[in-house]
Design goal:
The protein has helices spanning 2-12, 41-45, 50-65, and strands at 20-26, 29-35, 69-75. The chain is an alpha+beta fold. It has a single domain, classed as K homology (KH) domain (GMP Synthetase, Chain A, domain 3), CATH 3.30.300.
C-alpha cells in the first residue's frame, strides 16, 4: 500500500523526487504519512480536500482486500 500512495502522489506533483511515504503500525492497522514539497500541497489535498479523500478511498479499498485498516495523513512540510 505504501507503493500505491507513492505512485499516486508522484503522478500528481511537480516535484516527484521529494515525495516521501512513511509506514508505521503493525498487524492489521497501518498508518501512512505522506510528505511532499510545499508547492505541491495544494495538488495533493485538492479543492476542499477532494483529491486527498479520493486517495484515501482507493487506499481503503486496497487495504480491505488484504484484510487491513489503513489511515493516511498528509503532513505539512
Amino acid at each position: 500500500m505504501k507503493d500505491l500512495i507513492e505512485y499516486i502522489a508522484k503522478s500528481l506533483v511537480d516535484h516527484p523526487d521529494e515525495v516521501e511515504v512513511h509506514e508505521s503500525g503493525s498487524g492489521s492497522r497501518i498508518r501512512l504519512e505522506l510528505k511532499v514539497h510545499a508547492d505541491d500541497m495544494g495538488r495533493v489535498i485538492g479543492k476542499s480536500g477532494r483529491v486527498a479523500n479520493a486517495v484515501r478511498t482507493l487506499l481503503r479499498v486496497a487495504a480491505e482486500r488484504e484484510g487491513k485498516q489503513v489511515t493516511l495523513d498528509v503532513l505539512e512540510p
